[in-house]
Specification:
Layout lengths: L10 E4 L5 H11 L3 E6 L19 H7 L3 E4 L5 H11 L4 E4 L5 H5 L3 H7 L4 E6 L14 H7 L20 H20 L7 E6 H8 L1 H9 L7 H4 E5 L4 E5 L5 H8 L3 H5 L6 H6 L1 H12 L4 H10 L3 E4 L10 H6 L2 E5 L6 E5 L23 H7 L4 H9 L8
Parallel strand pairs: 1-2, 1-4, 2-3, 4-5, 5-6
Antiparallel strand pairs: 7-8, 8-9, 10-11
Helix pairs in contact: 1-7, 7-8
């Protein structure tokens, strides 16, 4: 065990699909755990074939599988189930992401697995949770954005609720699942048994939207001050986000705009006043900011300590001098893809090095033979399993 690999020696068997649970497993791998991804024989995890240009790896499959080993197993066959039981021997963590009820029909629910391996930590990930009237509803990130009010808090100029495309619900749910597993691994040192852990996109989305929800509870359904303190405004050559904060924030902002008179205008000197007069204030700010370039305003706001950022396109950030100077991204080659992919460093984990296990997302079933040999299967047994279609064929 070390700071670079605190989970070295931890074995994880990962049956999850999609991105939320797989990403949690990927984080375990990045911190040293051996994570065995068990995939379907017909193309593997569905995210591998969800992109217009499938090559065995997609954006989601790379994000969710860096550092893992992949084995293809037919879990609908008795022989495939026998393979999975062999993989579970000595495992510390078992992860599944099927709809409620599916894993029990396969014979690997928590009760059954923990009877044989009582020390195991078992994670179930689902959309709406394991119980309740919506438990069996199919759900993905955008569904929970809509359900929890997150989309309603992010409306366009016409008032239409907007879906945030960068899968925030999946990401936050994955992080909660990772922290729950990490805490459980720590606590298990003094516990005689493992435990069952449930995580759902519903839980993650609820926390993602908690700030807005609590604001509405506290202020009787309204969100006072939010749009008075921050805004995205057009400039002469793009858009810029500005946030006004602190006791001196409004005055500094007005001086940066070269309109100090706004700082003395009685309608705008207080938060309450800016909220009450936001319909008047917003057009004034838009007119001022639209007259000059992003570069001009960045220089002015930096000089006066005003929080701000140009609204970059996703790829613009890669070439920002600050991002380049900090070495935030590693450009990694991945199986099945012709280009290198920019992958940000994971906080607290060592830098990703091209060609290493931690920096590689395997193709579906790529490690079948390696995994089976590590679990005591002889070459003849592996050949037999492949010939019967129980595990992935040779690559």
């Amino acid at each position: 065990m070390s700071y670079d690999a605190p989970f070295a020696g931890i074995k994880v068997v990962d049956l999850s699909q999609g991105i939320a649970a797989p990403y949690a497993g990927m984080l375990l791998a990045q911190h040293g755990a051996t994570v065995i991804k068990v995939e379907l024989l017909d193309g593997g995890d569905w995210v591998r074939i969800s992109a217009p240009k499938p090559g065995g790896n997609t954006a989601l499959s790379v994000m969710g599988n860096l550092g893992k080993q992949s084995i293809g197993v037919d879990l609908k066959s008795p022989a495939g189930c026998a393979v999975l039981w062999r993989l579970l021997k000595g495992a510390d963590v078992f992860m599944e992401g099927f709809r409620p009820g599916v894993i029990k029909r396969l014979g690997f629910d928590y009760t059954t697995v923990s009877e044989r391996y009582p020390n195991i930590l078992y994670l179930s990930m689902s959309g709406f949770g394991q119980t309740g009237p919506y438990a069996e509803r199919p759900a993905m990130d955008p569904v929970l954005q809509a359900f929890t009010g997150f989309m309603a808090e992010n409306r366009d100029l016409d008032g239409r609720p907007m879906n945030i495309a960068s899968i925030p619900v999946d990401m936050i749910t994955a992080l909660y699942a990772f922290q729950a597993l990490s805490a459980a691994l720590y606590a298990r040192r003094d516990e005689p048994r493992g435990r069952y852990i449930e995580a759902s996109l519903l839980q993650g989305a609820a926390w993602l939207n908690t700030y807005a929800m609590l604001q509405r509870v506290i202020y009787d359904g309204d969100l006072p001050g939010a749009r008075a303190h921050r805004g995205v405004y057009p400039t002469a050559d793009g858009w810029i986000l500005v946030i006004v904060s602190g006791r001196r924030g409004w005055g500094d902002f007005c001086r940066a705009l070269e309109h100090p008179e706004l700082g003395d205008d009685a309608r705008f000197t207080s938060v309450v006043g800016r909220v009450a007069n936001s319909a008047t204030l917003a057009p004034i700010l838009s007119e001022i900011l639209s007259a000059r370039s992003n570069a001009h305003w960045q220089a002015r706001f930096s000089e006066y300590g005003v929080m701000h950022s140009v609204t970059n396109e996703s790829l613009d950030m890669l070439h920002d001098p600050h991002v380049e100077a900090t070495g935030l991204f590693s450009h990694l080659q991945q199986p099945g893809l012709a280009m290198t992919l920019p992958i940000p460093g994971i906080p607290g984990a060592p830098a990703l090095q091209n060609g290493t296990r931690r920096a590689t997302a395997p193709l579906a079933g790529a490690d079948t033979e390696t995994v089976l040999r590590a679990h005591g299967y002889a070459a003849s047994e592996i050949a037999d399993l492949r010939a019967r279609g129980v595990v992935s064929a040779s690559r």
